[in-house]
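so my prof wants the structure for this chain in the tokens format not the other one, which i didnt know existed until like an hour ago. anyway here's the sequence
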Amino acid sequence: MKEIMKLIRFDFITSVNSALPFFGGMLLICLIITAFGVFNPIFGVFLFISSAAFFAPAQNTANNPNFRRVRGILPVSRASFVRAEFTETIIALLVSELITLILMGISRLSKLYEIFPPKFEIFCKEIHTCEGINVFDEKIVKFVHLVIFVCALLIVQVTFINMRSAIEKHEHDIRNILLVFAVAIIAFIVSVELVLRKVIPPYDEWLFPSSAAGTWVWGIALNVAAVALSILFCRITVKKTADYEI
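here's what i got, hopefully its the right format
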């Protein structure tokens, strides 16, 4: 555990100078939008990207052949490097999810948008009162459910990509990324089409809970399941790459 924490700290220090301005800028924009009561979970995408930016530069550097030679002389096992990378990914995504949900809650309480001119106020009010995604007047999913579900899905997807890339020695990174996200996008499009054709009921009727308490329980359980799968991917990666050179 000490080795993992040291590696995470090392990656953070390596990336903070380049990542902090981007993350800070995105967070400041989201805070301003939240203060006026018009924060939309779509803006949370920028938080996910900027949070990942904390460790992405260090992980990319770690895959550089010259840097790997340096890592090879460090008194740290390969398993610790793998576990640190997976831990960084999980932390970045969970922190982004938490920040997004908090900003959503604060935004719902604020009505500062009422200071804007009438026409713009109407536009802002529509954003403020919107609770979910509607397609052709069909209620598809609430934003709070969408944020939790997407975050859990991203944890599983990104850690699965990390596993595949590490096992394949990063020879097919682009292919793995495109394949995993293409499958998710196709599955989403097909499911939306099935909802619109009334082949299956809207997600809120069978996939997502209807009560606030149910949403808390469902959200925690979903994130725990996603993290558990990520730990499984991590263990598989450690086992499969045990004989690889650092």
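also thought this was worth mentioning. The first helix runs from residue 2 to 35.
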